[in-house]
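Changelog-adjacent note: as of this version, every example in the card shows the full chain rather than a window. The one below runs 290 residues end to end.
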Amino acid sequence: MSSLLPYFRNALQAFTSSSATFQVLRTVPLSSTFPAPKTLYVLDSSFNPPTVAHLRLATSALDSTDSQSSSKRLLLLLAIQNADKAPKPASFEHRLVMMTIFAEDLLRSLPAKSIDGGSIAVDIAVTKHPYFIDKSRAITSSGIYQPDPSKSGEVPIEQVHLVGFDTLIRLLNSKYYPPSHTLSPLQGMFEHHRLRVTYRGDDDWGGQEEQDAYLQDLKDGKREHEGGKREWADSIQMAAGKKAGERVVSSTKVREAAQGGDADSLKKLCTEGVANYVLQEKLYTDQDAA
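Full-length structure tokens:
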């Protein structure tokens, strides 16, 4: 897989020098052709590195009851703001290689009934946008999954963004939407797309009841003074997160395991292919890696 490094390095250079704000760099499986999806599942992360937490987010969505009847695709999305400055602790091209390996591991892990005869594809993509709603618009207007709806008049392909509860909190924080600092810029996204939100199990976000109450406040109209619409709650699905007894997984813990040479922990925190790549390339071994 290290042979992919020069490919992604060149692809990134071409992307950063172009006017495009979103681009798919690779699709897994590589040699197959796939129908246009009716539903696009979007997993947007720094992937530094991909972990089994990312795996749970993706597989639970792809294997969910509401995803069984439609043509679907998974998009792994990496934002590359400040791409002319060396990212730490792993370069963007290393992350893109790991995302490709992760996609292969993910497809192998899916139950046969989720794959619909092999019709699931995973796209590896990059964007220049740092903000959630701008990423969603860039995906829609790129024309990659369908002709630009703003020009064709078609209904946009539904995007289902796979996020944690902490991301929902940030998304519904009006401070991120200047100059009016209201939630009204989110109207277009909730009109056509959905969120699948995984409960957070750590103490910072409270228990499941507190997280449900946050969404209920939106549904009860308690965010209307900020521009939040009651009906948006219907486009937000809460999903189970870490099960009781499962270890807490984070990219920080992976980097700490790699820095400490703890291969056993690394292989429990990452998919097998990603763990092997981190060990092979000696990623995250510098003192500033954690």
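Structural remarks: The longest strand covers residues 72-79.
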